């Protein structure tokens, strides 16, 4: 929607009262405020990211002794990324990747089937079920995590990454199932019907006809599950207490707490690496994300 | 919506029981497709809440398998604890502060993004970036930027005279809470933006064109066209933000662990401390139940404000 610019005809100024600023002045002020705002919020958002990147590539001794706004050629180095080759950090990163991949697989698989069932089968209490699902949106990791700690330790899921995957998947469910359901409703049923007439089974039709058409919804669900799992601290902190199995967030916080581990250069380097995947997704998949939220909020 | 055909008066035979539940072959397959979701929910949402209510009636030392039934005394203990009321107050402060900041900033960013003629796509990506940076990274960068030795924001603040040169701002009694709110809002304001932006883009251009022909000013267009159309979604965003922030654990714990001297100990932090640092699992579960009651109230309001069945029929 582009309201301004085209209407800057001088005749419009005459309709304004004499005490007011002319249309052009106000229009210019408006644009100044608009682009000023854009510049301000971009700066506030981008500066911490810039600061992280700059220090990730700065010699770790320089990071804690000197202060400079810009990187200087003498101190630029890749040494900080060596943190990924040794110590406990690589294990945390791998654990996070494993948990995230598991969560995405579980969420996409379960929500595809459930969304298909809700869109294509008629059964009673479907609406009540949908409301019940939305209730899950209100559960918070800390409220569920405290009781889960003892339950998981009873059944041996404490310190098991599959336990964390189950917990994270279930808090991603309301969004994922609703999105799939809404999305599959928009796919015409006639293609499936023609596949049935050609003799395909229900399962085969689902797999070969429906699934390929739900790609945008799958991407949106996968992104959502990714964000939940990649972001998680609370569940991992409570459900993976051992240093061996834990993910990046609790792992690095415990390192900092215990040993006063403050090589800021190293921390910024690994922070940068953990930020890159979400950044890539944000840029390349923003239309999918918006589409997902549109389905959700309408 | 389901087939009402077998709503018979016969009561005892099997067929009518199945009929009342609408369990024909199609419905069975329908339920089968959602069974995994139901199982997950039972496992991870319903059981823990039930378990928390159960465990809150016992005295549970975490490292000791012997539970002692104490009835409601955990609740009495919670409700007479000074730290409970102070953390409830701090939690309310954190929730209201965060929600207000996030609503204003998020709405502002959405309106600006929606009005831009150039660079809209790029700046939208920039805004989304903040939401996608993992919480732990936000915290690590914040800890670095407030570091007493080399933190850029620490230096900026002490130069402006906000805090002393040797004061760790996040460990300062007066600054800890506002800074935790601001650091959280850096990330979560964009949640409001995403909600609002989708709705803003759905407003047809012709409304604004018609208003312009009638000589409406920008403010009038905002007040009479834009605002009524986003009020609903803003209410939902505010409600969700408030509920999420009231239950926020991760960012506060990572930034301050509830300190200094309890200055940022909200209810989730207190519950965590009680369970794992004071080994009083029963009392912690009583707190979890109290938080769950707050959540349920939030959920109820959410359902009133945002009727999901209206969506089902679209």
Automatic annotation (TrEMBL), chain A:
GO biological process terms on file: transmembrane transport
Compartments in which it is found: Cell membrane
A GO cellular component entry from the record: plasma membrane
Membrane topology note: Multi-pass membrane protein
Spans traversing the lipid bilayer: 32-53, 92-117, 129-152, 158-181, 217-240, 267-290
Alphabetically ordered keywords of this record: Cell membrane, Membrane, Transmembrane, Transmembrane helix, Transport
Domain ABC transmembrane type-1: 93-285
Keyword field contains Cytoplasm: no
Record region (Disordered): 1-20
UniProt cross-references to Pfam families, sorted A to Z: BPD_transp_1
Family as reported in the entry's similarity comment: Belongs to the binding-protein-dependent transport system permease family.
Name this polypeptide is given: Binding-protein-dependent transporters inner membrane component
Organism phylogeny: Archaea, Methanobacteriati, Methanobacteriota, Stenosarchaea group, Halobacteria
UniProtKB/TrEMBL annotation, chain B:
Entry-linked CDD domains: TM_PBP2
Localization of this protein: Cell membrane
Pfam families in alphabetical order: BPD_transp_1
GO cellular component assignments: plasma membrane
Sequence similarity: Belongs to the binding-protein-dependent transport system permease family.
Gene Ontology annotations of biological process type: transmembrane transport
Membrane-spanning residues: 38-57, 88-113, 125-146, 175-198, 227-246, 283-303
Residues covered by the ABC transmembrane type-1 domain: 88-302
InterPro entries: MetI-like (IPR000515), MetI-like_sf (IPR035906)
Transmembrane helix among keywords: yes
Protein's recorded name: Binding-protein-dependent transporters inner membrane component
Keyword terms, alphabetized: Cell membrane, Membrane, Transmembrane, Transmembrane helix, Transport
Membrane topology: Multi-pass membrane protein
Keyword Lipid biosynthesis assigned: no
Organism superkingdom: Archaea
């Amino acid at each position: 929607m582009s309201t301004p610019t085209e209407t800057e005809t001088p005749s419009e100024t005459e309709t304004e009262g004499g005490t007011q600023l002319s249309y052009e002045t106000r229009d210019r002020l408006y644009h100044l405020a608009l682009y000023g705002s854009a510049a301000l919020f971009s700066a506030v958002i981008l500066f911490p990211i810039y600061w992280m990147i700059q220090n990730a590539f700065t010699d770790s001794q320089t990071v804690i002794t000197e202060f400079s706004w810009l990187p200087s050629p003498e101190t630029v180095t890749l040494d900080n990324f060596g943190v990924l080759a040794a110590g406990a950090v690589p294990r945390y990163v791998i654990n996070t990747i494993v948990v995230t991949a598991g969560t995405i697989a579980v969420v996409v698989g379960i929500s595809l089937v459930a969304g298909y069932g809700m869109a294509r089968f008629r059964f009673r209490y479907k609406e009540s079920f949908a409301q019940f699902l939305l209730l899950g949106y209100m559960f918070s990791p800390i409220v569920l995590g405290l009781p889960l700690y003892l339950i998981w330790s009873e059944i041996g899921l404490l310190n098991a990454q599959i336990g964390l995957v189950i917990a994270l998947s279930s808090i991603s469910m309301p969004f994922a199932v609703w999105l799939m359901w809404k999305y599959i409703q928009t796919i015409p049923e006639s293609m499936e019907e023609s596949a049935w007439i050609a003799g395909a089974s229900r399962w085969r039709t689902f797999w070969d006809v429906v699934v390929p058409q739900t790609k945008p919804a799958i991407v949106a669900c996968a992104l959502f599950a990714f964000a939940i799992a990649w972001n998680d601290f609370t569940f991992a902190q409570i459900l993976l207490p051992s240093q061996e199995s834990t993910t990046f967030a609790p792992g690095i916080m415990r390192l900092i707490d215990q040993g006063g581990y403050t090589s800021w250069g190293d921390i910024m380097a690994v922070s940068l690496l953990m930020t890159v995947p979400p950044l890539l997704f944000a840029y390349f998949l923003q239309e999918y994300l918006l589409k997902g939220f549109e389905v959700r909020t309408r | 919506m389901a087939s009402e055909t077998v709503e018979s008066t016969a009561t005892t035979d099997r067929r009518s029981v199945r009929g009342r539940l609408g369990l024909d072959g199609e419905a069975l397959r329908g339920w089968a497709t959602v069974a995994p979701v139901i199982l997950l929910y039972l496992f991870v949402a319903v059981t823990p809440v039930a378990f928390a209510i159960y465990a809150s009636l016992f005295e549970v030392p975490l490292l000791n398998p012997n539970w002692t039934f104490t009835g409601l005394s955990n609740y009495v203990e919670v409700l007479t604890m000074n730290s409970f009321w102070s953390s409830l107050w701090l939690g309310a402060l954190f929730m209201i502060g965060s929600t207000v900041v996030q609503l204003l900033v998020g709405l502002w960013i959405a309106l600006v993004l929606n009005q831009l003629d150039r660079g809209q796509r790029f700046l939208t990506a920039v805004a989304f970036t903040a939401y996608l940076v993992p919480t732990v990274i936000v915290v690590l960068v914040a800890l670095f930027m407030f570091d007493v030795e080399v933190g850029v924001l620490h230096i900026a603040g002490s130069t402006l005279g906000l805090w002393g040169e040797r004061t760790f701002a996040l460990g300062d009694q007066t600054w800890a809470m506002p800074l935790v709110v601001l650091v959280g809002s850096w990330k979560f304001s964009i949640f409001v933006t995403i909600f609002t932006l989708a709705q803003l883009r759905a407003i047809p251009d012709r409304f604004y064109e018609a208003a312009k022909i009638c000589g409406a000013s920008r403010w009038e267009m905002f007040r009479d066209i834009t605002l009524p159309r986003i009020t609903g979604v803003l209410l939902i965003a505010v409600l969700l933000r408030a509920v999420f922030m009231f239950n926020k654990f991760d960012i506060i714990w990572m930034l301050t662990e509830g300190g200094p001297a309890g200055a940022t100990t909200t209810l989730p932090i207190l519950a965590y401390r009680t369970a794992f640092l004071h080994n009083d699992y029963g009392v912690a579960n009583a707190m979890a139940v109290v938080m769950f009651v707050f959540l349920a109230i939030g959920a109820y309001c959410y359902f009133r404000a945002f009727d999901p069945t209206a969506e089902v029929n679209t």
